[in-house]
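Would you be willing to look carefully at the protein I have copied below?

:::
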Amino acid sequence: MPIRQLHVSGLRNLQPLYISPHPCVNFLYGDNGSGKTSLLEAIAVMASGKSFRTSHLKHVLAQESERMEMRFQINDENLGDCELESLRLKSGDQLLKLNGSVLTSQADAAHWLPVQVIEPNTFKLLTGSPEERRSFIDWGVFHVEHNFMNQWKAFRKHLKQRNSILKQKDPDQLEVWNAGFIESAKAIDDQRQRYLRRFKPEFDRILSQLDDTIKVSLAYYPGWEKDSELSDILAKQQERDMVVGFTQSGPHRAELRIKCDKQPAAEILSRGQQKTVVAALKIAQGGLFQQESGRQTIYLVDDLASELDQHHRLALCKLLEDLKCQVFITSIDKEKLTDVWQPVASKVFHVEHGTINEENPE
């Protein structure tokens, strides 16, 4: 599923660029602040509508620009060819198109661009809020369960309505809406649990290849007591829910608990080990997606050398190479890219002062 061509303008310090990436490996090297991470950010924004560097997309736009434009040519062996276009204005207005037709949902772009990001802050998947880990699970479920997005929209509608009734403190109305809430909640939970049953062995396999000394377990908490019916939990919590004005139990409170020796992994593992675990999570997710869909994930690996020694960099790159997917990978030093990964099929780009130039192969 390679990006065949990409055009970006108005993004951070990047000069307007038009490049043709390699369908396999793309090395980008340059000094800090040169713009190499900004290219990865552009791909992430096109895919998800979000940046991995800021929660406010207005900060992604270049300071002197009122607009950011991106255009990607994509080739997918299963889906065919497409052109994705994105226009974002500093005012907050945006326009997303697929083959010239306006898209009303970012999910349509995400379907064409399944992107995984591995960057210095991805250890937040371990240390951050449960929402980070829910989003991780739902990325996988979204890409392999075809009706997940419809189920999720139905659940969010029921949750919003239930919370509104809780604020009104109307128990009679609440009983009416509970049935729909419970039905959609169970559908979301079933899909997540099915996915995680397939994901766990893949994660164990990948982690052992990255570092067989790290032992980590994954446990899923659905958002309510495992051995209890959600209907019973809602009945028990109804009075308290009306006091606080929101629903305390449900799939919106689910959690993926990542533990080491029965303790939260974030409290036991070093930062380097945390990054190794997160890399295993991301690679396992892309590998499972590939197995189940016949399609490939695009990997964005920023600052490869950060907190990973040469042995772990070599193991990480070998796993990505085995996936035969498109990879964009950055480093300050060109040697720290090529010393651990020397695939035959690759391109090298030098990034300097926001300008990206492809180097001629040696």
